Amino acid sequence: MLRIDEILTSAVQTGCSELFTSTPEITQISVQQTRPEFKGERTVVVFPFTRLSRKTPEETGTLLGEYIVENCEDVTSFQVVKGFLNLSISDSYWASELQEAVTCGAEFGLQPESSKPQIMVEYSSPNTNKPLHLGHLRNNFLGFSVAEILKAAGHSVVKVQIINDRGIHICKSMVAWIKFGNGETPESSGLKGDKLVGKYYVAFDKAYKAEIAEHGENSAPILLEAREMLHKWEAGDSEVRALWSKMNGWVYDGFDATYTEMGVDFNKLYYESDTYLIGKVQVEKGVSSGAFKKREDGSVWVDLTDSGLDEKLLLRKDGTAVYMTQDIGTAILRFEDFPALDRQVYTVGNEQEYHFKVLFEILGKLGVEQGERCHHLSYGMVELPEGKMKSREGTVVDADDLLQEMRETAEAVAVEAGKLDNIPEADRPELFKQVGYGALKYFLLRVDPKKSIMFDPKGSIDFIGNTGPYIQFNYVRSRSVLRNASIKDSTTLKISQSVTLDDTEKALLMTVLSLPDVIEEAGKLYDPSLVANLCYDITKSYSSWYQDHPILKEENEELRDARLAICALCSSAVKTGMSLLGVSMPERM
RNA sequence: GGUCCUGUAGCUCAACUGGAUAGAGCAUCGCCCUUCUAAGGCGACGGUUCGGGGUUCGAGUCCCUGCGGGAUCACCA
Predict the structure, then answer these.
(1) How far is the CA of A304 from the C1' of B4 (A)?
(2) Taking the C1' atom of B16, which residue's CA lies nearest?
(3) N or C: which end of chain A has fewer CB within 10 A?
(4) Nearest nucleotide to A316 by CA–C1' distance?
(5) Does A269 reside within a domain?
(6) Nucleotide nearest to A544 (CA to C1')
(7) According to the model, what pLDDT value does residue A192 have?
(8) In A292-411, which ranges are E strands?
(9) Span CA (A514) to C1' (B33), Å
């Protein structure tokens, strides 16, 4: 909250209690930015107080306005329009806020490191049988961004993923590779490891389809082979395990390359092959404690009908684990691995909402009190104009391909605009990445996570308008101004307390000053789009202001310094905000 | 059928969680580079916020109801 809003809130309380002998609740007091068509900067909505004053909104507002001007030195005058009390704030207030924020430098907007509870953020978690696609990009950017936002909001954060390295899917790739692979490796073929394994997954599917006609879905020989291999794997067959390790290794190498390219990282990796058995122990414990029930056939169930959910299977009658079983195990393992952990955040698509509701309930039943604070960061699908991506129809947008396309588009746009003359050849590849990936990340993160995203591969992602490159471009211009002013360290800029900012400058300043609140809020809601939207709001206001407010050419020295400070503050705030989205900012473009 | 999400300009999205005349971008049409980077700025056009009720000083936002879209309710993962 702006410092002035805190002052006003408390002034409204004491004012009401003195004038109307009754104090309103904090929640009834709403202070907002004054609309540009009215005089003033902050507005108090007075309707809620008419009940206390037993007067008209206008009279109530006037009385409160007089009280506030009298008692708050930062408030210079007021105007009541209908039920709105518009307050003008002193020049010195804005000057000192600007001074304070600009002095924070790159720290502006950030809360002290690890001043809040530790949170684990899980994201990515792909299967190891297929390369990453556009849906994974949304997942990775979202999870990474939420983790960064939580860090900025003061939490200690652990980024993890669980790698689904086990199961029938990888066995299918293995079978196909043995049958059709002729010993092909990433080295021999020049294919990225994940692409190579994915190729054999597809080859399996093709061969399987061909056999279905003759043998039926459940007894196609190649499927039986895959199942046989899964059994061998579970029995620890050394040959199978060796091939499994080798092929998974290829996939990891491929994924790692993509992660590096995307700019996401992890503090710890969990492998399903290590954790899938742990859950069984926990489920047995739950049976002993009475949290779960074992049926006569030996299967174990949890009854969640009290919470409005169903009964859910936790162990099959043959004693083998289901998906939920291993998620329980993994969750508890993580709380053991990180004793200070306050909660876990799971970045997983919205098709698993029910699964996570159940999981968190179960954790509670097992006595894991953090369960109720765990959060499923659910997000909508990325859809193509013709609907969902379908591998069968070849409409899957491959992550590596799209990243490459973004780099190429960035280059083409730069060439077209004739922007490369002043960019050394050696710096260009990095610039194309920054701009291309900035466009992509911003595109995917600026919308509310729970909504689905429409992506048209033919219409390619924009570089103008409300886009990442637009924000980067204005950042670059502001950096250029600071360079031209030979400012090495903007935190040492001094703002005269008597400087008068105009309305657009005050509005811009108010927008920038909301960064700490927005980061806090985005962390609470696990929603990067709030940060993205703020970056855009700042940039839009900045760009418009920049157009007709000379900075370096301003002759009034204290105004010039104040504008330099605004310029420095905007660029710093936007850089911080964009970094929370995983977008890096170029110095020139 | 039950539960959850969703419906805002031609298209893609906002709207400070109940506040003033619902805002941006794209697209279309004008204007602005001898001025700190024009990947920019300014203006015009564009709306029954899916329909219908209700709650109150005030509703895109909350409640009820109908309609459309999506997800989910497996001894799958």
Answers:
(1) 17
(2) A32
(3) N
(4) B75
(5) no
(6) B41
(7) 96
(8) 293-294, 300-303, 311-315, 341-349, 375-379, 382-383
(9) 34
Phi/psi at A192 (5° precision): -60, 145
How far does the CA of A477 sit from the C1' of B31, in Å?
23
Domain end, chosen from A42, A60, A89, is at A89
Rounded average pLDDT over A476-503: 95
Residue A174 binned pLDDT confidence (cut-offs 50, 70, 90): very high
Domain containing A461: what range?
408-580
**Residues contacting residue A432 through CB under 8 Å, at least 6 positions apart:** A407, A408, A410, A411, A414
CA separation for the pair A365, A136 (Å, rounded): 32
Q: Which DSSP string do the residues of A67-123 spell out, in sequence order?
A: HHHHH-TTEEEEEEETTEEEEEE-HHHHHHHHHHHHHHGGGTTPPPTT-EEEEEEE-
A23 found inside a domain? yes
Q: Which nucleotide is nearest to A323 (CA to C1')?
A: B77
A538: in domain:
yes
Whether A110 shows a pLDDT value over 80: the answer reads: yes
A115 CB burial (10 A radius; 0-12, 13-18, 19+) = exposed
Q: What is the spatial distance, in angstroms and rounded to an integer, between the CA atom of A253 and the C1' atom of B20?
A: 58
CB A569 within 8 A of CB A102: yes
Percent of chain A with pLDDT over 90: 85
Q: Which residue has the tokens 């924000």?
A: A471
What CATH number does the domain containing A461 carry?
A: 1.10.730.10
- Say how far A466 CA is from B63 C1', in Å: 36
Each residue of A126-162: pLDDT tens digit?
989 889 999 999 999 999 999 999 999 999 999 999 9
- The CATH number of residue A52's host domain is 3.30.1360.70
Long-range contacts of A179-183 (CB under 8 A, 24+ apart): A179/A207, A179/A222, A180/A207
How do residues A66-97 score in pLDDT, each as one tens digit?
Answer: 999 999 999 999 999 989 999 999 999 999 99
In the structure, how far is the CA atom of residue A563 from the C1' atom of nucleotide B34, in angstroms? 25
**Closest listed residue to residue A564, CA positions, set A99, A110, A109:** A99
Distance CA A456, CA A383 (A): 8
As a rounded value in angstroms, the CA-to-C1' distance for A300 and B2 is 24
Protein-contacted positions of strand B (CB under 7 Å): 3-6, 11-21, 24-27, 35-42, 57-58, 70-77
Residue type for position A401: D
Give the orientation angle of helix A323-337 with respect to helix A278-289, to 10 degrees: 90
Given this model, what pLDDT does residue A391 score?
74
pLDDT band at A306 (very low <50, low <70, confident <90, very high): confident
Angstrom distance (rounded) from CA A412 to CA A408: 6
Comparing every residue's Cα with the C1' atom of nucleotide B75, the nearest one is A316
A89, A112, A132 — which closes off a domain? A89
Q: Total structural domains in chain A?
A: 2
Dihedral pair phi/psi, residue A588, rounded to 5° = -140, 150
pLDDT at A217 over 90: no
Does residue A24 contact residue A49 with C-beta atoms inside 8 Å? yes
Distance CA A525, CA A519 (A): 10
Helix, coil or strand: residue A155: strand
Phi and psi, residue A122, nearest 5°: -100, 135
* Cα distance between residue A57 and residue A580, in whole Å: 43
